[in-house]
């Protein structure tokens, strides 16, 4: 009994980083805005799976589908990426939007943003 207790303690203590439930890492450092229904909203963070915007959560309904244009400021240009998404999370002044599955061209555009940030 003591051996099983000690073995559980050993497996629980670890210096490894916590694993995330997210499929994609969030990118809070990129400068971008989201244009939804013709109105611009600041983007808190984004990933190829979705984005978190600063907005009045009363303007959006849960599971509401919408077209989103994300405007990224790159080194020498502005890149517009238009895609569809759905509201999956709302809290005070923040709205989480999940993207529909990405097309190959949108996936390349997101990779271009990441590459520009690294360069």
Structure description:
By secondary structure, this protein is an alpha+beta fold. The chain is built from two helices and six strands. A hairpin with a 2-residue loop joins strand 2 and strand 3.
Strand and helix map with partners:
Blueprint lengths: L1 H11 L19 E5 L2 E9 L2 E5 L10 E9 L4 E14 L2 E6 L4 H15 L1
Antiparallel strand pairs: 1-2, 1-4, 2-3, 3-6, 4-5, 5-6
Task: Describe this protein with a few key phrases.
single chain, 119 residues, alpha+beta, 2 helices
**Are there runs of 5+ residues with pLDDT below 50, and where?**
none
Helix content: 10-25%
Order of helices and strands: HEEEEEEH
Cα-to-Cα separation, first versus last residue? 56 Å
Briefly say what this structure is.
It is built from 2 helices and 6 strands.
